[in-house]
UniProtKB/TrEMBL annotation:
The keyword Repeat belongs to this UniProt entry's keyword annotation: yes
Protein name (Swiss-Prot/TrEMBL): Putative Heat shock protein DnaJ domain-containing protein
WD repeat segments: 191-232, 233-274, 279-320, 369-403, 404-445, 446-482
SUPFAM superfamilies: Chaperone J-domain, TPR-like, WD40 repeat-like
Coiled coil, from the record: none
UniProt source species: Hyella patelloides LEGE 07179
Renumbered ranges of TPR repeats: 91-124
The keyword Membrane appears for this protein: no
Length: 482
């Protein structure tokens, strides 16, 4: 299905509509739903405001969109920047998303992701198998049986065909067979934190507490010195994907799978529900949120491939950026330099100004991107790639500074120490690695999680590393060196 179909639907059009038809439909609907037509009808006026926001957003996305389904004569004029770049690892990304949706019982979304994985890899046995289980659970037995027959056929095919050499990606791993784990850091606390994947962890500026979120819909505040729960903030059981915290440590903002952005007062331990409705402008789940406390500007990135810049003082949207390339997977922001970067299943990275969204610098890596982090001083950008490498870019020169090799699976999360010297990476391979940035060498490998590492943070005093995982635990690590 065309990824822009939802926007055509808002305008009442087919995806084959021309740009002229898009413009005509927009003008007609904007006139129909203009709030000024309902001055004396408060209920209709509220509805009109919601509709006009959807209409404006759809038009903003579609007015510059050039579909790939062009005539032969037109195709030569279409910029490659408007086309989705499918990486060889994309099926695994969609499969992983499907698993996460299934874990949160969002079965229709899970089926859609497994179907995307299968479309990209027709022999993806695990995707057929998982999709079949969900279809059977939902009562779609004919469709489920079809998937199970495919699984049986693929297993038979694997048995009868000559054994193939294990596929190796076009990159080299450093030899990790002799690595000594937990040399300088030790796990001193394991917290049975959540019922589902720990999606995000963020520490307070004063080192006193940290916050965790999960796909179980809960937010927990923990005391850093003891690892004890201070409070549990319960929303409406909607899975939470991302956290960001104000520099005052008082306001927490969450990006959620129900497409909303919610605000929480941590002093009063309650939701600021009055703001949430103003920030429900994405068409699909929120992938990430990041806050610039200096200007009170919020950046949100969604699975609808939209990046939005919000003025929180006014409660208004400053900028809406439609990413016409591959799916967005991550977001990072640097307050000191005033810029942010989003990553996705393409190689291109664009660093943008926070206030305007304008591209300041464009970088090109070796594969799709799964995680990002800026060093606090803004000098370095760490890029966790799908090919299991971490690239370090020097933003002062615009050149690649180092490539860090050691993880055996996707780099799911990255964070820098406050002194800008150490990068900490977490991976689907269940390990956490500490790297010296200047020299590009591995310092230590922390191994204790039973499943993929999904969240990382380090306290500002650099004494405690906090990691979260798909195994539903949080682990607290302290240095052995006094």
């Amino acid at each position: 299905m065309n990824e822009f179909a939802q926007y055509y639907k808002v305008l009442g059009l087919e995806i084959t509509a021309t740009s002229a038809e898009v413009k005509q439909a927009y003008r007609s609907l904007a006139k129909k739903w203009h709030p000024d037509r309902f001055v004396n009808q408060p209920q209709l006026r509220d509805k009109a405001q919601q509709e006009i926001q959807k209409i404006n957003q759809a038009y903003e996305v579609l007015k510059n969109y050039i579909p790939q389904e062009q005539t032969v004569s037109n195709r030569t004029n279409v910029s490659s920047n408007y086309r989705v770049q499918t990486t060889k690892n994309a099926p695994e990304i969609h499969y992983q998303r499907g698993v996460e949706f299934a874990e949160t019982e969002q079965y229709e979304d899970a089926i859609a992701e497994f179907s995307r994985a299968i479309k990209l890899d027709h022999d993806y046995l695990k995707a057929y198998q998982y999709r079949g289980f969900i279809l059977s659970k939902l009562g779609y037995e004919l469709r489920a049986n079809s998937d199970f027959r495919m699984v049986a056929g693929l297993k038979l095919k694997q048995k009868t065909q000559p054994a193939e050499k294990e596929k190796v990606n076009n990159y080299n791993y450093s030899n990790t067979s002799n690595i000594q784990y937990n040399q300088y850091w030790q796990c001193w606390q394991t917290l049975l934190a959540h019922r589902k994947t720990v999606s995000s962890i963020i520490t307070s500026q004063n080192n006193q507490f940290f916050v965790s979120s999960s796909h179980d819909g809960n937010i927990k505040l923990w005391r850093t010195s003891t690892g004890r729960v201070m409070a549990t903030l319960k929303g409406n059981s909607v899975a939470i994907n991302s956290l960001t915290l104000s520099s005052s440590d008082k306001i927490l903002i969450t990006g959620n799978q129900d497409r909303t952005i919610r605000f929480w007062n941590l002093e009063q331990k309650k939701a600021l529900t009055t703001l949430s409705n103003k920030f429900s402008q994405h068409f699909q789940e929120i992938i990430a949120v990041a806050l610039d406390s200096r200007t009170n500007t919020l950046i949100s990135a969604g699975a609808d491939n939209l990046i939005k810049i919000w003025d929180l003082d006014r409660g208004t949207q400053i900028k809406n950026i439609a990413c016409k390339s591959a799916d967005i997977t991550c977001l990072a922001l640097n307050e000191r330099q005033g810029y942010f970067c989003n990553g996705g299943l393409e190689r291109q990275l664009r660093i943008r100004a926070i206030k305007t969204g304008k591209v300041i610098l464009s970088l090109r890596g070796d594969s799709g991107v799964f995680s990002l982090a800026f060093s606090p001083n803004g000098k370095y950008l760490a890029v966790g790639q799908i090919n299991c490498q971490i690239q370090i870019w020097n933003l002062e020169t615009g050149q690649r500074h180092n490539i860090l090799i050691g993880h055996q699976d996707r780099i799911s999360t990255l964070t820098f120490s406050t002194d800008n010297k150490t990068l900490i990476s977490g991976s689907w391979d269940t390990s956490i690695k500490l790297w010296n940035i200047e020299m590009g060498i591995l310092i230590d490998t922390l191994q204790d999680h039973k499943s993929a590492v999904s969240a990382l943070a380090i306290t500002p005093d650099r004494k405690t590393i906090i990691s979260g995982s798909r195994d539903c635990t949080i682990k607290m690590w302290r240095t052995k060196i006094v």
